Amino acid sequence: MKKIGFIGLGNMGGPMATNLVNAGWDVIGFDLLAEATKKAEQKGIQIAKDAASTVKNVDVLISMLPASKNVESLYLGEDGLLSKLDTSILIIDCSTIAPDTARKVANQAKVLGLSMIDAPVSGGVVGAQEATLTFIVGGATENVEKAKPLLENMGKNIFHAGDVGAGQVAKVCNNMLLAIHMCGTAEAIALGVKNGLDASVLSEIMRKSSGGNWSLEVYNPYPGVMDTAPASRNYEGGFLNKLMLKDLGLAKEASDSSNSETPMGDLARQLYQELIEQGLENLDFSSIQKKYLD
Ligand code: NAD
User: Fold this and answer.
1) Is the distance from the beta carbon of residue 70 to the nearest atom of ligand 1 less than 6 Å?
2) Which residue's alpha carbon is at the smallest distance from atom 7 of ligand 1?
3) Which end of the chain offers a freer environment for a tag, N or C, measured as fewer CB atoms within 10 Å?
4) Is the pLDDT of residue 294 over 80?
């Protein structure tokens, strides 16, 4: 049986590694937080004493870390992992990070004869728990094919976006668009309500008309319109404002480094920044609607 090393056993990594164990893989993991390793151990993941011990005798290494700086330091920092890996190991970084960082680490891996792909995910903690994540992958086709059996045990959709870094680019583009249409949807519903319309009636009209979009379809931001949406439970749970702001920051970095114009993305980032400044970082991102509720 193949052995998997898994670094970063937090809200996403913990359940992802658990799904691999449940599917029969031999998984050894590591996290800097004792709380995360304790939970993982209870789910059948062996715990290594540090990152370097996690990668001994493994066939695949998966990382699921908070941000670019964590990934860069794990792989390229002083005592970085890349210099310790056997060239037979496939590296899969599932963290959401800047495309430039993903390319920098993967290119250095290549120089050392190692294979690396970026595989950020969409689907949140529930998707990680239920193994229904969408993986958006960047890397050489042969490496993506090698990763598929593992990714299929943690998710249900796997998209190959292009070469290394392409997974991160696609993820950043998608989440920037998500923020933009959520902001626009909240604004449009509020405009209708302030002009005497019922939020549910207006939402249904727009959903079936040319304004139709994913927010109106499954994630209506107006309280009471959709029972299953975070708006109907005080915006609790879901995809947090602080994570959306992080992704909009990555979109800004990508637009700056490629000289792209993203005025709508910039405005969405400003609006989410304002929500964070109001102390709403731990509410779902559809709480942008709160800006327009009286
Ligand atoms: P998290 O903070 O719950 O988990 C990250 C874990 O990494 C933490 O437990 C931390 O201790 C550990 N860690 C950091 N540096 C480490 C190191 N050098 N060695 C070992 N462990 C280390 O975060 P999360 O919610 O699991 O998110 C992980 C990634 O997934 C992020 O990039 C995030 O943007 C992305 N993501 C999250 C969601 C979500 O809904 N939470 C959805 C999609 C994508």
Assistant:
1) yes
2) 8
3) C
4) no
A 10 A CB-CB count for 133 gives 27
Which of 146, 148, 171, 252 is the catalytic position?
171
- Kindly give the pairing relationship between strand 133-138 and strand 121-122: antiparallel
| pLDDT classification of 103: cutoffs 50, 70, 90 | very high
Query: Are 114 and 179 in a shared domain?
Result: no
Residue nearest to atom 34 of ligand 1 (CA): 96
101 and 210 assigned to the same domain = no
Domain that holds residue 285: 169-292
**Of 110, 129, 163, the domain-final residue:** 163
Say yes or no to pLDDT of 204 above 70. Answer: yes
Query: 3-state DSSP call for residue 62?
Result: strand
Which DSSP symbol is given to 89?
P
Indicate which residue's Cα is closest to atom 30 of ligand 1: 95
Cβ(32)–Cβ(55) below 8 Å: no
In the chain, what's the furthest Cα-to-Cα distance? 66
Which atom of ligand 1 is nearest to 73's Cα? Answer: 18
Tell me whether residue 171 is one of the annotated catalytic residues.
Answer: yes
Same structural domain, 114 and 187: no
> What is the tens place of the pLDDT at every residue in 22-74?
999 999 999 999 999 999 999 999 999 999 999 999 999 999 999 999 999 99
CA of 122, closest atom in ligand 1: 43
CA–centroid distance for 8 within its chain: 13
Choose one of 109, 138, 163: the last residue of a domain. 163
Model pTM score: 0.95
Assess whether 178 and 141 both reside in one domain: no
Question: 7 alpha carbon to ligand 1 midpoint, in Å?
Answer: 10
pLDDT at 1 over 70: no
Helix or strand (DSSP H, E) at 145? helix 141-152
